[in-house]
Specification:
The protein is mainly alpha-helical. It has helices at about 5-20, 25-65, 75, 85-95, 95-105, 110-125, 125-135, 140-155, 160-165, 170-185, 205-220, 225-230, 245-260, 265-280, 285-300. It has 2 domains: about 25-185, no CATH class; about 225-300, NusB-like (N-utilizing Substance Protein B Homolog, Chain A).
């Protein structure tokens, strides 16, 4: 589920925090970093559980209306398209999802008013009216509808974000990424998937990705002064105090990847930190970082400090 860019971002945030006040025991900080990344998966499952809870809430509402003292024809013969939505039904029946909901002790019992508000907003929407009145109820139509309501009513829901942030302060930064992962997950959902189908895991390769995180975090900090001196040899016209702290961290992380992580291609490292600088630093940062690293890479290659193994990794 997580890609390397997101892992780099989490390491960057941890290094920035460490260098700007935290500075606790490095081992402790590394454990906290891994823990914060692991908890992203809990947020992923929480998002999915909102969909299944909405399904459960809608079904409960239908049953309650049937039991009214004077039920209407609509109460007795409700439109079942939402509660029988094929994607929602499949998620609700997922054994693996249910296990993970139980594992993280997820419950919406204390937030039924919030679920009710979200459901009522969905019911009042154009998307809901069109879906409920449509004669088409195949899987693709059901999926398209769920993706629409997820994006509009769940992904950017401030009330939900508040609930999530109360569980973990780290989730304020992670929510944007998780929403993207959920959308991708829903788009890739197949009608043939059974209740035994596994929900995507957090890491593509647990051992490899965990090693990447630890090496990038630990060795960037352990070599902080050395990397800074190296960077300054190619930024001679700049006073170190004038270089943005974020740019310095990105360049140090890049040097760490170039010299300490032999399985990552040189070009990938260069491109990744240029892209990250566009998001987290100044408009001119990408040119500055690119210029400094472009000058450093040949020096590191000539000295043998870049020793990539595998075809195409030196490019």
């Amino acid at each position: 589920m997580l890609n390397r860019r997101h892992l780099r971002i989490k390491v960057f945030q941890a290094i920035y925090s460490y260098l700007n006040g935290a500075k606790n025991d490095l081992v402790v900080e590394e454990k906290e970093l891994i823990k914060s990344i692991d908890r992203i998966y809990e947020l992923f499952i929480l998002h999915i559980s909102v969909l299944t809870e909405l399904n459960r809430f809608a079904f409960k509402l239908i049953e309650e209306r049937k039991k009214k003292r004077l039920p209407t024809d609509e109460d007795l013969n409700p439109n079942m398209k939402f509660v029988e939505n094929k994607l929602l039904a499949s998620l609700s029946e997922s054994e693996d999802l249910q296990k993970k909901v139980e594992q993280f002790k997820i419950s919406w019992v204390d937030n039924q008013e919030l679920i009710k508000k979200i459901f009522n907003s969905i019911v009042d929407s154009k998307e809901y009216q069109e879906f409920m009145s449509s004669e088409n109820s195949d899987f693709d139509t059901s999926k398209e509808f769920i993706i629409k309501i997820y994006k509009r009513f769940i992904a950017d829901n401030e009330m939900l974000e508040h609930v999530f942030e109360e569980k973990s302060i780290h989730w304020a930064d992670d929510n944007y990424f998780v929403c993207g992962y959920i959308t991708k997950f829903l788009k890739n959902y197949k009608s043939k998937w059974t209740s035994e189908r596994k929900i995507p895991v957090l890491y593509k390769d647990l051992e490899d990705d965990t090693e990447f995180i630890k090496v990038l975090f630990r060795k960037t900090l352990l070599n902080n002064d050395e990397f800074e001196k190296l960077i300054m040899t190619k930024a001679k016209n700049w006073d170190s105090d004038r270089i943005a702290a974020v740019d310095f961290i990105f360049m140090k992380m890049a040097v760490c990847e170039l010299t300490k992580l032999n399985s990552v291609p040189v070009k990938v490292t260069l491109n990744e930190y240029i892209e990250l600088s566009k998001i987290y630093s100044t408009p001119k940062s990408k040119m500055f970082i690119n210029g400094v690293l472009d000058k450093l890479i040949p020096v590191l290659k000539d000295s043998g400090e870049i020793a990539k193994t595998g075809r195409g990794l030196m490019k």
